[in-house]
Design brief:
Shape: rod-shaped
Mean pLDDT: 81
Helix content: over 70%
Strand content: under 5%
Number of domains: 1
Order of helices and strands: HH
């Protein structure tokens, strides 16, 4: 019985270690995603694009706006 408990305890420690490793990788991934999100926002800002992630509907690109205002040629 003691031997079985030792194996269970050892396996529990292994699983706990695995969970800790997964949590660490998840936190690292979230950090990278936050950095990428900020970079995307900066690029959108430089391009004059409103981000849909900020809760604002995006404005159409300038050419689409012009096409909606001007009648087709021809």
């Amino acid at each position: 019985m003691s031997r079985q408990l030792d194996r269970i305890e050892q396996r529990l420690e292994e699983l706990t270690s695995m969970v800790g490793a997964v949590a660490w990788y998840f936190e690292e991934a979230m950090d990278y995603l936050a950095i990428l999100d900020q970079e995307i926002l900066q690029i959108e800002e430089r391009l004059g694009i409103e981000s849909t992630r900020l809760g604002h509907p995006p404005k159409p690109p300038r050419l689409v706006e012009e096409a909606a205002i001007r009648p087709p040629i021809g």
